[in-house]
Design a protein that fits this description.
Ribosomal Protein S8, Chain: A, domain 1; 18 helices; eight-stranded mixed beta sheet; 3 domains; Ribosomal Protein S5, domain 2; globular; alpha+beta
């Protein structure tokens, strides 16, 4: 019996393992096929998907096509027309070069390809299933190439089960589609999903493409960036600081028309916006960097989205300075006008006599003097009496009646349960326009006003699914909102939920909606900002796929319609928030698990001051 334990893997197993590095989800297939179409010199590219790419991904291009031999060879691993020797890796001008994409896709799906070169009379039709070659025959087909990928991961059930729902997977596909379409404005791109045209991008310039993808409003938010040096060329657009948003969206960096992810370059752009936007805000940018391929290495990751530079520091400094200069030209920061004449107040006159200013003060004042009308040992003034009464009022809930009351008691939930038993007219005051402070027995309760109201609104909307529908207040002037393709599809998917919660929304043309009404209990809201904020929050929450759709939307609405820090509340508003939050099912935490309130025991305060 042999003792050997190491053996070669079967080809189909090795192919599936290798495919796992390249094909992670349907969007991975879309990326590879679109890049191949671009490399083939196509001027028109159509992407057709069904069930978010799980059932069908079809890419049709009018590129140069392939002859019978190349059509068969392109499915072999490490077979490529892009490079022939190792040195070619440092002079790449194409998207692909590894020769792994088609072989990897064919290993985990049922693939058909039709292709024809311009000079050929007939084309080639090839069928491959799970790396197994099925057939190759002649066919009639237009010049170019058509790839049909069916039933992705049909032979790897475990991998298919890890795919997200259609909405999430389609979002990833649209993201990859945008990353290819943005740098190639000279190509006409079309995206069709389940028979519906999602995006139609005719050939044009960069600004036209940005407006088609993200809405016409983007033009007023962007300023151009342009710099051309012997080492690096930079072009594109960056957003004004006033257009900064709370999430990292619409942030694109392309190196030689290839989308890349690089935290170092993102940091350079953030530094250019330093002190112009708040810490938690993020700019939008569409930046295109061009440099000699010998100065970069893109062969460090199978997806080719990561990159290394031979001189990363120089790229960082150039990018930061160029963005700063673009913002300066847009008059973002205040500047001094040295051509304006100095005001006459600063011009001296020989006829005017200047004297030293005099300061009036009481030479007999002594802050440590213990007698007189201002002394605390003497008679109190009316102002002192009022101040003393106000300070004593803060501690009305702390007065002890016996030594037993000063002993430590059970905290947190016990005190909250006592507060919930009855509706009380609490003594309240606002601290730093952020917290509501009240007292109960020996406890001081400090409530975060924004989180408390968020909890109240969340539970109010959450109960609508099982109990009632929120009434809608029709707007005097309906609001039209232009959305990106991803956001438009999200609104379509959530339309019934929005209507249940009081939003009257209708589709209005391509990637646009009209809001005819808003919930009647939401007063003085900016409808456009609210809808956009709700969509962004909803997308952030989808990272946790366990959140049910209605629950997620209620969280997003509560987050974007609750009162904010800095809002001054009167006593009646604070008392209403206190009573309502205490009647919530879980008054201690927001829906995302952040604390709403805390309590401080009087005995802890006394223990502190006895030190």
């Amino acid at each position: 019996m042999s003792d050997n334990i190491i053996a070669l893997l079967p080809d189909h197993v090795a192919n599936q393992i290798a495919a796992g590095e390249v094909v992670q989800r349907p969007s991975s297939v879309v990326k590879e096929l679109l890049e191949n179409a671009v490399d083939a010199g196509a001027t028109q590219i159509r992407l057709i998907i069904k069930d978010a790419g799980k059932s069908l991904i079809q890419v049709i291009d009018n590129g140069k096509g392939m002859n019978p031999f190349d059509a068969r060879m392109c499915f072999e691993r490490h077979a490529t027309s892009k490079i022939s020797k190792a040195d070619d890796l440092w002079s790449l001008t194409t998207k692909g070069f590894r020769g792994e994409a088609l072989a990897s896709i064919a290993a985990v799906a049922q693939v058909e390809m039709k292709t024809r070169k311009k000079d050929d009379v007939v084309g080639q039709h090839i069928i491959i299933e799970g790396s197994k070659f099925v057939s190759q025959e002649e066919c009639q087909t237009p010049v170019g190439t058509t790839f049909i990928v069916k039933n992705l991961f049909y032979n790897i059930t475990a991998r298919r089960n890890f795919l997200k729902n259609d909405q999430v997977e389609q979002k990833h596909i649209i993201d990859e589609f945008e990353r290819i379409a943005l740098p190639h404005c000279d190509i006409h791109f079309t995206l069709i999903s389940n028979g519906n045209e999602i995006l139609n991008l005719p050939a044009g310039n960069l600004m036209q493409r940005i407006k088609l993808l993200y809405g016409n409003y983007m033009q007023k938010d962007l300023v151009p960036v342009a710099e051309d040096t012997s080492f690096l060329k930079i072009g594109g657009y960056v957003s004004l600081p006033s257009a900064a948003v709370k999430t990292r969206k619409e942030q694109f960096i392309f190196i030689n028309n290839r989308f890349i992810k690089n935290a170092f370059l993102n940091h350079a752009i953030s530094e250019a916006y330093k002190e112009l936007i708040s810490f938690q805000s993020h700019p939008k940018y569409f930046l295109f960097l061009e440099l000699d391929p010998k100065h970069i290495d893109i062969n460090i990751h199978p997806t080719k989205t990561e990159i290394k530079f031979t001189d990363e520091k120089s790229v960082y400094m150039l990018l930061m300075s160029v963005v700063k200069r673009a913002l300066g030209k847009a008059n973002v920061a205040p500047s001094l006008d040295f051509e304006t004449s100095i005001t006459s107040d600063l011009v001296t006159s020989s006829d005017k006599v200047y004297t030293q200013p005099k300061v009036n003060y009481n030479p007999d004042y002594n802050p440590f003097k213990n007698s007189g009308p201002s002394s605390y040992q003497g008679k109190e003034t009316e102002l002192q009496k009022v101040n003393k009464q106000n300070w004593e009022a803060l501690f009305d809930g702390f007065k002890q009646t016996s030594e037993e009351e000063a002993q430590p008691n059970t905290r947190d939930q016990h005190a909250i349960e006592d507060l919930k038993k009855e509706s009380v007219d609490y003594n309240v005051f606002q601290l730093n326009f952020k917290y509501i402070v009240t007292s109960f027995g020996q406890n001081v309760v400090i409530i975060d006003q924004q989180r408390a109201h968020e909890r109240i609104v969340y539970e109010h909307y959450l109960n609508t699914k099982s109990e009632y529908k929120i009434s809608s207040q029709q707007l005097l002037f309906p609001e039209q909102i232009e959305l990106s393709a991803n956001d438009f599809n999200l609104v379509k998917d959530l339309k019934d939920e929005f209507n249940q919660l009081g939003f009257d929304i209708e589709e209005f043309g391509k990637n646009s909606i009209v809001v005819n009404g808003a919930p009647s209990d939401l007063q003085d809201i900016n409808v456009i900002q609210t809808i956009e904020g709700v969509l962004e929050t909803f997308k952030l929450n989808t990272i946790d796929a366990k959140i049910e759709k209605h629950d997620n939307l209620c969280r997003a609405i509560a987050k974007n319609t609750c009162i904010r820090y800095g809002k001054q509340l009167d006593d009646s508003e604070m008392k209403l928030i206190v009573n309502q939050v205490l009647q919530c099912e879980n008054p201690l935490y927001t829906a995302n698990g952040k604390p709403v309130m805390m309590e401080v025991d009087l005995t802890e305060i006394e223990r502190f001051f006895k030190k």
